[in-house]
Write a structure and sequence with these properties.
By secondary structure, the protein is α/β, with parallel strands linked by helices.
């Protein structure tokens, strides 16, 4: 299962059924779980732990030292990747910057060609990053979010659950869950109705989410007042309470 041209450090811990293709390079402190597959020319280094059934396409570069200038040699900085992810060609995922910190990628994510995930990013599950989408440091991305091609996200921003970001969009503030953001400068256009429907959210809940969207994004209310109204009017709708909780934690501001 290991091509003879692959270079694997003696300390690497690799499950017996992992496939490692031609000219791959695996570092000393790497752990790779069962059922994973590395095609040709994949490089994995650093304090990197990879779960099960992940597929890495040619030229992916995983776990290398962060590009953050605050990084100090000797820091123990980690990268953790879960299960069932697909990492396409030339994607880069870096370890953390701060001593003891982690960059985390969850499960069932599709990271397409030329994407970049920087230090201390935290990604949930079932996320799609289309070609050349880029995350700066400390970005958080919620489950089932979609970043379209060449979207760029500023450091410390949060992308909410089931949010969708349009192609070439420059994101500098938080993106609320269940919404669709597009343009330069970015604007929150509507709720992500299609994604919600496909994931089984009832039509009645989607209608209420659309009402909540208008309160937050179209009534020109102060954000704290809009959140209070959501809590008063929709306390029985878990998805809207999740939206309200997200809005109370906006530190970089909200894309509206």
């Amino acid at each position: 299962m290991i091509h003879p041209t692959a270079v694997i450090s003696p300390g690497a811990q690799i499950a017996p059924d992992v496939e490692i293709g031609p000219y791959c390079v695996i570092g000393e402190n790497v752990r790779i779980g069962a059922g994973s597959k590395l095609m040709s020319h994949v490089v994995v280094d650093g304090l990197t732990t990879i779960g099960e059934r992940n597929t890495f396409f040619p030229m992916a570069a995983i776990g290398h030292k962060t590009q953050d200038l605050k990084y100090k040699e000797g820091n123990k900085c980690y990268l953790e990747i879960g299960n069932d992810n697909v990492i396409r060609e030339f994607a880069t995922i870096h370890c953390a910057t701060l001593d003891g910190s982690k960059t985390i990628v969850g499960n069932n994510n599709l990271i397409m060609a030329y994407c970049h995930i920087a230090h201390e990013c935290i990604l949930g599950n079932h996320i799609i990053m289309s070609n050349a989408a880029t995350l700066a440091g400390h970005v958080q991305v919620g489950d089932y979010a979609v970043l379209s091609g060449m979207a760029g996200v500023h450091q410390f921003c949060r992308i909410g659950k089931m949010a969708m970001i349009g192609g070439c969009t420059k994101v500098t503030m938080d993106v609320a869950p269940f919404t669709l953001v597009d343009g330069v400068p970015p604007r929150c256009a509507t709720i992500n109705r299609v994604r919600m429907s496909r994931l089984g959210i009832p039509d009645e809940t989607i209608q209420k989410m659309n009402q909540a969207y208008k309160i937050v994004f179209r009534q020109e209310m102060k954000l704290k007042d809009a959140v209070e109204k959501l809590k008063q009017d929709y306390a029985d709708v878990p998805e809207i309470m999740e939206l309200a909780d997200f809005l109370t934690k906006c530190e970089r501001g909200l894309t509206r």
